[in-house]
Write a structure and sequence with these properties.
Blueprint (H helix, E strand, L loop, with lengths): L2 H4 L10 E7 L5 H13 L4 E5 L10 H11 L8 H10 L7 E5 L2 H7 L1 H10 L4 E3 L9 H9 L3 E3 L1 E2 L5 H10 L4 E4 L15 H11 L4 E4 L5 H8 L4 E4 L1 H10 L5 H16 L6
Helix pairs in contact: 2-12, 3-11, 5-6, 6-7, 8-9, 10-12, 11-12
């Protein structure tokens, strides 16, 4: 098992790893780096570092707006290189595993070999590319594996059993299970057919499974922890940045909410 995969190993039964997402550069790169450290202090097991991109096709309005704020009016204020360099400077202060969450274009423009090398040097553990399929992901997987990085792929509710097996075989660290058809965004309730979906995924892969899309409260995180190995929360945390990004108590509010989610995923403990 890879180092990223080992982050899920301590959790069994009704407990799961906590996997938060944040958009880097929102409200600023330096402030988002402070939020990464806050997520680590709050008990996050794996942190998804969202790379700003002007056409985030898998994301709903909350994360779209965060990416627009991070990119700025000229659409280039924060880049993939900026994020890797910035996180690398403070990696020793962060206990959580780190994965880059990026659409493929920024990685392709940097070059997969350069991306893998610079990410590994910065202490990043893996990468998740929502618009890259296993069929097209060979060059990235090869470059990342050569540097000890995991590439995480996604399974959707519409995935066939055959495709689930292929995705499970291609993924490193864990598999990201999309809980519903649609885009990211906080929802009021868990899809009723999610247990059935998870049972089908588990029949087709033995990789750790993290569920994302729509989880917005500690109560929902605790419910997801009963059927998953990891609980992914994105938009609910991004919304705090949208509402309090210019406030002096942003980090405190953000860390407090993240801690409540982590404790719920961990079964009522701090991990």
């Amino acid at each position: 098992m890879s180092g990223l995969g080992e982050r899920f190993a301590p959790y069994t039964g009704d407990t799961a790893a906590f996997v938060p997402y944040l958009t880097m550069g929102d409200p600023s790169l330096e402030k988002s780096i402070e939020l990464v450290k806050a997520l680590s202090r709050a008990g996050s097991d794996v942190i998804e570092l969202g790379i700003p991109f002007p056409d985030p096709l898998a994301d709903g309005s909350t994360i779209q707006a965060a990416m627009q704020r991070a990119l700025g009016p000229d659409w280039d204020r924060v880049t993939l290189s900026d994020v890797i360099e910035g996180v690398g400077r403070v990696r020793g202060e962060i206990d959580s595993a780190l994965i880059v969450f990026s659409y493929y274009n920024p990685i392709f423009r940097m070059g997969v070999e350069k991306f893998a090398a610079t990410a590994a040097d910065a202490g990043i553990d893996g990468v998740l590319v929502p618009d890259l399929t296993p069929e097209e992901g060979g060059p990235l997987v090869e470059a990342c594996r050569a540097k000890g990085l995991d590439v995480v792929f996604l399974i959707a509710p519409t995935s066939t059993d055959e495709r689930m097996k292929m995705i499970g075989g291609a993924s490193g660290g864990f598999v990201y299970v999309v809980s519903l058809t649609g885009v990211t965004g906080a929802r009021a309730e868990i899809p009723t057919d999610l247990r059935e979906l998870m049972a089908r995924v588990r029949r087709n892969t033995d990789m750790p499974l993290a569920i994302g899309f729509g989880i917005s409260t500690p109560e929902m995180a605790a419910e997801i922890a009963k059927i998953a190995d990891g609980v992914v929360v994105g938009s609910a945390l991004v919304r705090i940045v949208a509402e309090h990004g210019n406030s002096g108590d942003l980090v405190e509010l953000y860390e407090g909410f993240a801690r409540s989610l982590a404790e719920a995923a961990h079964g009522g403990s701090d991990g």
